Amino acid sequence: MSEIKSLSEERTQLFIDLMDGKIPKRVPVVGGFTHEFAIQYAGKDLKEVQWDTTDLEASFEKVCKDFYSDLLPVSAFRMPSFYQILGSRNFVMGSNGFLQHPEVEGLRLEDYDDFIASPYNCIVEKVLPNLYSELNSDPVTRSLVMAKAFKAYTDENNNLFRIYGNLINKCSYGTVTFYAAFCEAPFDILTDQLRGFKNISLDVRRIPDKVEAAVNAVTPLMIRMGAQRFPSKYNATFIPLHMAPYLRDKDFQRFYWPGFKKLVEGLAANGLRSNLFVEQDWMRYLDYLEELPAGTIMTFEYGDPKVVKEKLGGKHIISGFYPLTLLKTGTKQECIDKAKELIDILAPGGGYFFGFDKAIITLDSVNVDNTKAVLDYVANNAAY
Would residue 26 count as lying in a domain? Predict the structure, then answer.
């Protein structure tokens, strides 16, 4: 038992040093696998296990056993039960066993003014009935549906937290978490769940003042959403960044950046660190990212790691860049060589942990042996 505790403490210290701006004993390693990958990897039926999670812990444990990571490497973000109860239109289970996020319009054009006046009330009264068919009913029925869905949601999460706790203890993982809470950039929530990609692209040209007012109105709500239940400077709030790469520079400056910056700064003012998934290519926005509170965690999908290290490495914590496509198509040596290359660029001076450019979702998206080899190599060879 003392050996298990000692290993967990050693791994935890790697991340404490990382977030304190010190150079850890070695480069920390974070594997990123979704529950869909874990179920497939364990040879279970994806559609069955998501509805009856009896085998979920065993599936997760197999990933933990076979793939090196200093933090718990597998997690479940969305389970289908409560979405089905709600009659969800924004998250729909596909025939292949994966939840899909179709293009949706939760906020109608004529409801902008109500949203600007009171985002929370508008979401409850108008957006939710638009996104969830079972809530588009009389108050009594709506209340019963919401109660059932919330019960399913809490049951699923309580089971997941139990599994996480068991595996963190059993496998001696570090005890910090980069997913202590979740929220979205204000413009992203307006896009992803309220207006949709097509509509928001039209809105920024046709009604820019209302878009800007809506972003400003929802920003305090996102700060509240990103608050951690048990705040710690060694945990982080996860914020996936979606729309910025698809915007013109002037639109980014007006609609995206001000609300996003207020969000990250608002969390920091409450002692909360942000963990950003810098989706797509943000190279033209690096000077903006440099302005964010020191120690912000940034996992990059694409871009030039040398430039990112030069511009952001002295202030922020960097990860990502390792392409999953190479794990699928490369030889084992090519995959290891890529890890060496990224470590040589990003590790000097600290402020770096090893991770892939995105979470691994499907079993066929990577070569399993290559993935194991890369994680093992970094764990055993990546010193600062």
Answer: no
User: Does residue 300 sit within a domain?
Assistant: yes
Specify whether the backbone of 38 is left (phi greater than 0), alpha (psi in -120 to 50) or beta.
Answer: alpha
As to burial, measured by CB atoms within 10 angstroms (0-12 exposed, 13-18 middle, 19+ buried), residue 138 is: exposed
Domain of 244, in residue numbers: 177-321
Q: Where are the alpha helices (DSSP H) in 42-137?
A: 46-51, 56-66, 81-86, 112-117, 119-122, 128-131
Q: Do 135 and 142 touch, CB atoms closer than 8 A?
A: yes
The mean pLDDT of 239-243, rounded to a whole number, is 97
Secondary structure of residue 160 in the 3-state scheme: helix
Do the beta carbons of residue 188 and residue 243 sit within 8 Å? Answer: yes
With CA atoms as reference, report the closest residue to 57 among 177, 161, 155: 161
Tokens 């055993």 belong to 380
Q: How far apart are CA 374 and CA 333, in angstroms?
A: 9
CATH number of the domain encompassing residue 255 = 3.20.20.210
Q: Can you tell me whether residue 319 is helix, strand or coil?
A: strand
pLDDT at 1 exceeding the cut of 60: no
In a domain, 306, yes or no: yes
Q: What is the pLDDT of residues 5-50, one digit of tens each?
A: 899 999 999 999 999 999 999 999 999 999 999 999 999 999 899 9
In the chain, count of helices (H) and strands (E)? 19, 9
In a domain, 301, yes or no: yes
Structurally, the chain folds into a number of domains equal to 1
Residue 80 three-state SS: coil
Whole-model pTM: value is: 0.95
CA atoms within 13 A on the CB side of 194: 29
The chain-wide mean pLDDT, for the chain, equals: 96
274 — phi, psi (to 5°)?
Answer: -105, 140
Contact 228, 235 (CB under 8 A): yes
With H, G, I as helix, E, B as strand and everything else as coil, classify residue 4: helix
Q: How far apart are CA 72 and CA 31, in angstroms?
A: 8
> Could you read off the pLDDT of 94-141 as tens digits, one per residue?
888 888 899 999 999 999 999 999 999 999 999 999 999 999 999 999
